[in-house]
Design goal:
alpha/beta; 7 strands; 12 helices; seven-stranded mixed β-sheet; Rossmann fold
Length: 293
């Protein structure tokens, strides 16, 4: 579990929620298989850390784990997954033929893709250590790699990642849906505009970009969790900054969701059935859907 603890914990949260929620917000039936024995290791460590998350907590280890996952670990990966997959489902009938997952981590959509995604070409982009670990986990779990999935080793902090992507078969001419989920948090502020500029040159007009980003209202718990996992957050943005930045890089905001919007859209049905374990979107993290113009 040395490659990307933040991504592994996100996968754990998706797996736990899929198995335990009465009405899962976002189903990921492959996450537990991908984690293998690490699932139990993460579960144990998290339950033992209940004193940090909730001082004075009284209850069993299972109750402690449920509290930590529902309140702290699950909201972000569940909301992200529901948001970008819903947006992709909408984009496909409008002509999208390529999907670009930047910083794919342990996302399992390419391996559980629904029928409506079968004609897409899906490019997973990640750094070499993370990608090698994921491929090894897929193999160990016996999860086949669909023919329409391409793995591209590239680092967004390096200037050559766009050319590496094109060399792997990515077409600049095809309408593309790009998901940049859980990535902006860890990019230096000066690098995000460069990533947007590269995407502008890679994707034709009408293509879609979805991403989440941290605002100055981000909670200290989230910041400390990221630091503890070895992934310190480097860039915070206000919506006003994005409204200025995106058009300069060729994108227009089509939809923007605040934490209250996210909770209402994605978590309300779950919370109605499970009032004792409500899920609320992480404070200070917003979602954005932008269109290449």
């Amino acid at each position: 579990m040395k490659e990307n603890m933040t991504a592994l914990v996100s996968a754990f949260a998706r797996a736990w929620h899929t198995e335990h929620a009465l009405l899962p917000v976002h189903r990921d039936p492959l996450a537990r298989q991908l984690l293998g024995s690490d699932y139990d290791i993460i579960a144990r460590h998290m339950a033992q850390g209940i004193g940090y998350f909730c001082p004075g907590f009284s209850g069993s280890q299972d109750e402690a784990l449920a509290h930590i996952v529902t309140r702290h670990l699950a909201p972000t990966p569940l909301g992200r997954g529901a948001f970008w997959e819903d947006a992709l489902r909408t984009a496909v009938p409008l002509g999208t033929t390529q999907v670009l997952l930047l910083g794919a981590g342990y996302d399992t959509f390419p391996y559980r893709q629904p029928d409506w995604a079968q004609d897409l070409t899906i490019f997973e982009v990640d750094r070499k250590p993370e990608q090698q670990d994921k491929l090894a986990r897929l193999k160990a779990a016996g999860i086949p790699i669909p023919e329409n999935v391409r793995h591209v080793t590239a680092d967004l902090t390096k200037p050559d990642w766009p050319s590496t992507l094109v060399e792997a078969g990515f077409s600049r001419e095809k309408s593309t849906f790009c998901a940049l989920m859980g990535v902006v948090h860890y990019l230096p502020r000066t690098l995000f505009p460069k990533v947007l500029s590269a995407l502008r040159d890679l994707m034709p007009r009408g293509s879609s970009l979805v991403f989440d980003y941290p605002s100055p209202r981000l909670s200290q718990v989230q910041i400390q969790l990221a630091q503890g996992a070895g992934d310190p957050m480097k860039g915070l943005f206000t919506f006003q900054e994005l409204e200025f930045l995106l058009p300069r890089q060729g994108f227009l905001v089509y939809e923007h969701l605040t934490p209250a919007d996210i909770t209402n859209r994605f978590f309300a049905s779950h919370n109605a059935l499970s009032p004792n374990r409500p899920i609320e979107a992480a404070p200070g993290v917003n979602y954005c859907l932008a269109v290449r113009h």
